[in-house]
Amino acid sequence: MPKRDYVPIGRVAMLARYPVKSMAGEQVVWSRLEPGSGMPGDRDWVVRDEEQGGFLTGKKLTGLMQLSATTRPPDQGGTAAAVRLTFADGRQVDSDSPWVHAALTAALGRRVTLQPRRAAVERDFYRLARPMQGAEMRYLLGLRDDEPLPDLSPYPLGMLLSVTRYATPPGMLVDAGPLHCVTTASLDALAASDAACDPDPRRFRPNILLRTLPDLTGFIEAEWTGCTLKIGTAVLRITVPTLRCAMPGHAQPGLEQDAALLRAIKREAAQKVGVYCEVMRGGVISVGDPVFLKPLPSAGPVRTMVSQIVSRGKARLIDRVTASAPRQPPPAADPPGYRAFRITAQRRESSDVVSLMLEAEQPEPTPAPALPGQHVVIAIPAGPDGRTVYRAYSLSGNPQARSIRISVRRQGAGSTWLHGPDVVGKQVMVLGPRGPMALFPDDVEPIVLAATGIGITPFMAFLHAVAAHNPQRAIHLLVGARDPQDFPFDEELALLRNCLPRLHITFSFSMEGRRLCDDDVVSAVRGMPGAAIALCGHEDFMERTRRALLEAGIPDQRIILEHFSAPGGRHETAGGVVEFRRSGQRIAWTDDCGSILELAERSGVNLASGCRYGACQTCAVTLIEGKVTYRAGTDPALNRSVILACCALPDGDIVLDL
User: Cβ contacts of residue 219 below 8 Å, gap of 6+?
Assistant: First the structure.
């Protein structure tokens, strides 16, 4: 057989790297490649779930794909490896910011941390929270339970077994190879197969996009396994084709959800678009470089038949391994994510408010300071017959302190237990800190804070954080309370005034005939042009004030709300069957079932809740399939793959990760 030489196949159309796994990335014009590694700066970071363990990726948490990450310019200070995250609202937070974990927690609806890639010997870092089962593998690949796995013959058996135990190969944060390459020929073939799908190259997250020659059509890279590519001064070996999961169809920055795309990938390309490569010879590659391919000899009929037999055998083995994977352990006394804390101190603030200090029994390996405005959920043994009730409380102390401080008004069984004289020294289980309300202390813009009643607690945390990080920030705090002689935090606010020279406080006490009203807040905002506004307290006060601010021309995006009571109203829904995937239950939802949380509780499915109206995010759960609607008056503002069960109703059949 004659020796096969390199043949031209096209040019490099795009080079890109994705500093944080599953987030959108950045394009580059050139890159230096070295053997044994991928593109510098590519997938060096990952978001880790600190409540249930393991990595979070766009395969399960689609909202992660709405964020983007770029390598921070070197002249901005800090460590060279730092990256800059951009959130859906345009806010940017650096990876070495003390608030990065809390900002991600607020955006993603669960307590997470941003972690750098670790050495391969730290295998537990890469291990899945639980071994993957067959149903989960099909879900990640966008397959129905009755659909077979795609052809697995190109993939080494060790790689297939590894994906059932590890989120990524230990030592890497890529799925199957250091470099990912996609051709325009494949994307054009997808576009031609279905006018409804949009195979934008950004959906596939390639490191290298090859603009192939006009006479090369179809899914040409499907036959390239084992071939070599010459690009610039580098030589790459193609290892395996890219087995596509459901991620290309998810919404991303600048791209809407595209359900037709995954159907086209399965139908036209046997679920494989793109290839993974490894660097055989280091060198520099650049946009516009010509690309040459050195093909392998043709397979022939015998080799093809053997490949098909091997593929069927691998599929059966993977089915057997995933089916025999250990099942979920019996549910613990508290849902996943709760940690043991000890109540170390109790301080009386007023006749009906106490502050409590809580210390973690086991400090976290990666401390993740919270942001002011976030909260914890405490499992309190105060229900009937000693049953646990879950209550959410905002942080009221410095969110960067090792201890957590909460301030609790007595108004029910849970708070009464925390007010008890013998509570100090007792252990409680705590979830968080977490929550969508996030006040960044180091912002430079002025801010107006307006609170009624116990709604002042998140603002106490904010003032402590600003005093520590940004004491020159201009702040106007408006407080509505009942009795000046029984007001909590009076002495503490006096001390904070000494630390914050630009803090102005306005009190309105109802016993003195003065109530905090919406006109007061509008007037304060007009006196601080460009100020952000945060409201916390009674629902009617916040809604009335928000309307007044909007009527005064204040943009809605400058207004932050923290709900402390439940909006009313219902929302029409089509209903459907609710499947609790991990619990193995399928239950038909009807109007008398109430929320998904109420249905779960009646069905014996362990799911915590704190507020019952969508504010505390305690009941956040991953939506695997289907869609939900929310009761009127609630707007959880989470990503599409996470719902709040306490106020969500099924809109057709749904599948939940419970």
Answer: 185, 186, 189, 268, 269, 272, 273
Number of C-beta neighbours around residue 359 at 10 A? 13
Taken in order 530, 536, 537, 540, the sign of the CA dihedral is positive
Judge contact between 197 and 190, C-beta under 8 A. Answer: yes
In 3D space, the residue among 128, 100, 63 whose CA is nearest the CA of residue 643 turns out to be 63
pLDDT tens digits, residue range 206-264? 999 999 999 999 999 988 999 999 999 999 999 999 999 888 988 888 898 888 998 89
Contact status, residue 182 vs residue 273, Cβ threshold 8 Å: yes
- What is the bridge-based pairing of β-strands 532-537 and 559-563? parallel
Considering the domain architecture, whether residues 194 and 283 belong to the same structural domain is answered as yes
Q: Are 344 and 357 in contact (CB under 8 A)?
A: yes
Residue 65 has pLDDT above 50, yes or no: yes
Q: Report residue 568's pLDDT band, with 50, 70 and 90 as the boundaries.
A: very low
Name the residue range of residue 472's domain: 447-563
188: its two tokens? 């054009």
Contact 372, 396 (CB under 8 A): no
If asked whether residues 541 and 606 sit together in one domain, one would say no
Does one domain contain both 221 and 276? Answer: yes
User: What pTM does this model have?
Assistant: 0.79
DSSP reduced 3-state for 250: coil
